[in-house]
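Suppose you are handed only these lines of text.
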Amino acid sequence: MSISKNLNNIKSELPKNVTLVAVSKTKPVADLMEAYDAGQRIFGENKIQEMTDKWEVMPKDIEWHMIGHVQTNKVKYMAPYVSLIHGVDSLKLLQEINKQAAKNNRVIDCLLQVYIAEEESKFGLDEQELDEMLKQVQHDKDNFKNIRIVGLMGMATFTENQNQIEKEFKHLKTIFDNLITRTDAINRVSTENIDMKILSMGMSGDYQLAISCGSTMVRIGSSIFGSR
Ligand SMILES: *Cc1c(COP(=O)(O)O)cnc(C)c1O
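From them, the structure of the protein bound to pyridoxal-5'-phosphate can be written out as follows.
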């Protein structure tokens, strides 16, 4: 199957409210261009250097999403152009994103990564850390003028057990819904830099399940571009 056929098949089954991020990590620019020519404008990468190399040579109407773990000292390389950072999991990282965004006169959208898997290897915040981070951003909003928290991201356990994956996705959706109720209340009083609207969950193997659990953004790589 060609990339454009894969892409069109997936797009045809996504509900209207679900955004597709085409995860193009490790793939050559020619492959990305095939997806671009088929209409795809949002690409996800997990390494800042690789994403920047691709950004430099590809059309400028592409939205670049950083979906991988971000090292603080590399934020500066993507700050001029990145449109959404999915994996924000510490206040220190958020402060650096804010600083680099300010240097570029930008506001950078971020998702907070929440730990939902039963694995030691996945990054992310637990619920208490998430709470503390949001409180900090609300409390100290003058120091976070160049970031906007627009939602949450999570990755389920790498397992064949659909029940477990479903349980984890539903858990994240519950956290997300609870926050929306609360941030609505808070927003009426103050904050412009928190606007919970995106729930990024679901990859090639589990995106249908993620969507049925309330995902609004799926990150799909191998089902579009082939295995890596
Ligand atoms: C690689 C990656 C994906 C895409 O994985 P596929 O199984 O190829 O669809 C999604 N999200 C993150 C965070 C990734 O690193």
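What can we learn from it? The first helix runs from residue 3 to 13. Residues 23, 25, 46, 67-68, 155, 203-205, 219-223 surround pyridoxal-5'-phosphate (CB under 6 Å).
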